[in-house]
Amino acid sequence: MASHGEHPGEARFFRHGHGLHGMHGFRGRFRHGGPRRRGDTKFALLAILAEGPRHGYDLMLEIERRSGSKPSPGSIYPTLQALEEGGFLAGRESDGKRVYEITEAGRQLLAENPDRGESSAGDDEAMAPYARAMVAGRSVISASREVLRSGDGELVVKVAEILERTRREIYTLLAQSE
Questions:
Q1: Does the reported pTM lie above 0.70?
Q2: Residue ranges of domains in the chain
Q3: What does each C-alpha distance from 96 to 55, 92, 93, 99 come to in angstroms?
């Protein structure tokens, strides 16, 4: 990792807590790897299923799309199982996948807790740039890992150059925004 201060905006960025772990401006319905309260996963799942049936992986992708943070299967599938056992959703096999649908009891639970279901349209609009940046960053990391796994030294060097240029451009934008 390059030392902070190699680029004009870089030191200020890290000094103000915006390093790898601290996007302090990111304070929406979801943050730090998922829903902000333990029960929010349950309500987020119910809110998505209220729109129509989905399978578990699709639910994870939709939470990521809405929040910018991809939940782990270890948080989604046990919650789906608990909701199913509680009668709040029903699961069925379809094309080799388990598809979940919200039940009337699930709709009632969601209606009784409107502030814990979907975020408002204003929240979604405010969070959209942060979510987009987070998803884009994760996609770049994923693509970079694929290049490293390829074992192609020339390709690795080219990707490293692209990433270094991108880092400099980001810090240039940051320095210009002061």
A1: no
A2: 8-23+119-178, 29-118
A3: 10, 10, 6, 9
Per DSSP, what are the bridge partners of residue 34?
A: 31
Residues 78 and 91: their CA atoms lie apart, in Å, by 13
Q: Which residue bears the tokens 């299967």?
A: 73
Phi, psi of 100 (to 5 degrees): -110, 145
Q: β-strand 54-55 against 97-102: which pairing, if any?
A: antiparallel
CATH, domain range 29-118: 1.10.10.10
Q: For residues 57 and 98, what is the distance between their CA atoms, to the nearest angstrom?
A: 10
Output the pLDDT for position 71: 85
Mean pLDDT of 54-62: 92
Rounded CA-CA distance 105/86 in Å is 9
